[in-house]
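Progress note, project year one: complex with S-adenosyl-1,8-diamino-3-thiooctane.
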Amino acid sequence: GKRLYFNNPMWPGEAHSLKVEKILYQGKSKFQEILVFESAAYGKVLVLDGIVQLTEKDECAYQEMIAHLPLCSIPSPKNVLVVGGGDGGVLREISRHSSVKLIDICEIDEMVIDISKKFFPDLAVGFEDPRVRLHIADAAEFLRCAPEGKYDAIIVDSSDPVGPAQELVERPFLESTARALRPGGVLCNMAESMWLHTHLIQDMIAICRETFKGSVHYAWANVPTYPSGVIGFLICSKEGPAVDFLNPVNPIEKLEGAVKPRRELKFYNSDIHTAAFALPSFVKREVKLL
Ligand code: AAT
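Model obtained:
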């Protein structure tokens, strides 16, 4: 059968391939090439600029982790900002938190949202939460104008730093996220693969140590369809009330009773939360976290 090979200079010398059952959509937005197909092994797949963004089978791991690692680490989060995340999966996860009053989302590409509503209803369901306020804009610009200290948590669910997301790993952007957080507020940023992107991770950690002045950690999870099968999260707190990321003060197991979930958690729990911060020895050395 037909296969699609995903090659990219971000993972030179290797390619990931998926068997295609059917191409469902292929088009170009103002910002990127968008492809949706039915795969033989992972359900429907969303691809932007030739990079897999999610598959139905393993999206739970990434979306649950990037949302609950920060939100379970602080007591009753109220104002949350999502950067990127146009598929709605992270919104769906934030919805589980009944303390949350406002969920701003800043996505640059409206077409990703439309495509998700059409092909990924189990993710786009996140947009139905009445607490969600959608902003179609470049997040770098949006955050430059955001009120100081507005958010308890900012979740950067952005694509890889090629194309429109390039700015989102750079110092000015990270500085404006710190400014937009309240003291003791937390940032959780998609931070690539520890097997492939050591330098990027090191640079981001160095900038965040200077900018946030609270704590800076790296966590990771297994996501089979991301390059090298893992994805990392850079998670920091702004100077202010201390945050103990390793022992969540707002454990998900307590919340699950409070909100009637449309869908059970598939990946995240408090054991996984704590375990996600355990780093292989080579990563400890490279990011000099000790
Ligand atoms: N939820 C998992 C999928 C993503 S989507 C990343 C989103 O970030 C895309 O919809 C893209 O349009 C949006 N985006 C990119 N740049 C910007 C920007 N400057 N401002 C706002 N939104 C932006 C992430 C998958 C991670 C893949 C890891 N390899």
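DSSP finds ten helices and twelve strands in the chain.
Residues 51, 53-54, 63, 83-87, 89-90, 106-109, 112, 138-140, 157-160, 164-165, 168, 190, 226, 231 surround S-adenosyl-1,8-diamino-3-thiooctane (CB under 6 Å).
No further modelling is planned for this target in the current period.
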